[in-house]
Design a protein that fits this description.
Blueprint (H helix, E strand, L loop, with lengths): L2 H16 L1 H11 L6 H15 L5 H12 L8 H13 L7 H12 L2 H4 L2 H7 L3
Helix pairs in contact: 1-2, 1-3, 1-4, 2-3, 6-8
């Protein structure tokens, strides 16, 4: 994996949680797997733009639903119920779902998620 691909994988769900528009723009940059210095500059700018955006219920919900996709076939029925309950209550001010998903990433050793910024930042909240 190229360095830019690693950086995108690290930031992907974090960007999605901040600003869907930036996520879509970065996806377009990465689409052809041909990276350039110009694309790198655009990528860094989009990361900065996303960082300036406050989390919203809508963006958090969307990002967490994508992350949940890694667990939905391996989790216990209790974990699924907890997920659904926390999803209904998710808010940027009182986010219990992010740390819960971080614990699941640890429990099930989902390396892609363990190496992601969104999960790592939620792990710090535990």
């Amino acid at each position: 994996m190229d360095k830019w691909q690693e950086e995108w994988a690290y930031n992907k769900y974090w960007v999605m949680a901040h600003l869907q528009q930036c996520y879509e723009q970065i996806r377009l940059l990465a689409k052809d797997n041909e990276w350039s210095e110009q694309k790198n500059i655009e990528f860094k700018g989009l990361l900065e733009k996303a960082a300036c955006q406050a989390l919203t219920v809508k963006t958090l919900t969307n990002a967490y639903q994508h992350v949940w996709g890694y667990f939905k076939k391996m989790c216990t029925p209790e974990e699924k119920q907890t997920y659904l309950h926390l999803l209904q209550e998710v808010s940027p001010q009182d986010d219990k779902l992010g740390p819960f998903l971080s614990r699941l990433a640890e429990k099930y050793q989902v390396s892609y998620l363990l190496n992601s910024r969104l999960i790592q930042e939620n792990k710090e909240k535990l």
